[in-house]
Amino acid sequence: MGNGVQEGSVRLREDAETVLSGAVSSKRDHRQVLSSLLSGALAGALAKTAVAPLDRTKIIFQVSSKRFSAKEAFRLLYFTYLNEGFLSLWRGNSATMVRVIPYAAIQFSAHEEYKRILGRYYGFRGEALPPWPRLLAGALAGTTAASLTYPLDLVRARMAVTPKEMYSNIFHVFIRISREEGLRTLYFGFMPTVLGVIPYAGLSFFTYESLKSLHQEYSGRLQPYPFERMVFGACAGLIGQSASYPLDVVRRRMQTAGVTGHQHGSILSTLRSIVREEGAVRGLYKGLSMNWLKGPIAVGISFTTFDLMQILLRRLQS
């Protein structure tokens, strides 16, 4: 009988330890998710604010038939500043923040979760993923974030290309679009967005993670310096945005058709229209050189901020 009581006591203690271990693990998982959300939100906000004037200028050229050049982009920035004031260069940035904060938070947090899931599936728990799962994790993260925040991206594009008299604030954009064009309009351009975000997010995360992995292998240091992270992020942004740029032009045309005089159409009809009117290279890659300037800066700031915030939060928690 003594042995039975002792065995029961041992089982009870083991069960209690299992429950306690599960609770600790669950608490740790929740902390990791919250840490990723907070770090991603800050990373997105800093990166987009830093390049907002260049981003607005790029969008204006994307949705018009004007020929792009660095000189014309500078003239547009200069005359916008003269006619509307310095802060007008950041017009639409409030809508950008409303979109980019949840977008970046979801994307970075989803990426960490997809890495853990794929790591368990492929047997690489706690280790760097091999190339294909690494690419898949980035693509899934970008698709998840884009699907959940798309209407905010459309609103931001509308505010960037219209005079300030047309829309007084973000809510006014939603109200006028739903009243004058219908709620369906809030998802015009969604398909090219998803088709574009798969190579963009996939290649961006893949490139950044691969460069960090190579750095660790050849330098012998576990963590890169901040300026090295910036360089890795810049390379990631350059590759990701170059691969997905034509679809970015198409989605901007579809998003802003209601206020620029273009007809709402499908992806293929919008593509044909751009190529017919402006040519394949000049039309579909309009503003790409500006993206080569702002993209690496934004992505570099974004990835670096996320990583450093993660390191800081882990230290604070421990």
From TrEMBL:
Extract the InterPro entries matched here: DNA_mismatch_repair_CS (IPR014762), GDC-like (IPR002167), MCP (IPR002067), MCP_dom_sf (IPR023395), MCP_transmembrane (IPR018108)
Which UniProt keywords are given for this protein, alphabetically ordered?
Answer: Membrane, Mitochondrion, Mitochondrion inner membrane, Repeat, Transmembrane, Transmembrane helix, Transport
Residue spans of the Solcar repeats: 31-117, 129-214, 224-312
The record's principal subcellular location, in a coarse class, is mitochondrion
Membrane spanning residue stretches: 186-208
| Membrane topology of this protein | Multi-pass membrane protein
Q: Name one Pfam family in it.
A: Mito_carr
* Gene Ontology CC: one annotated term: mitochondrial inner membrane
Q: Which GO terms describe its molecular function?
A: ADP phosphatase activity; ADP transmembrane transporter activity; AMP transmembrane transporter activity; ATP transmembrane transporter activity; coenzyme A transmembrane transporter activity
**Domain of life the protein comes from:** Eukaryota
PANTHER family listed in its UniProt record:
SOLUTE CARRIER FAMILY 25 (PTHR24089)
Query: What protein name applies here?
Result: Mitochondrial coenzyme A transporter SLC25A42
Gene encoding the protein: Slc25a42
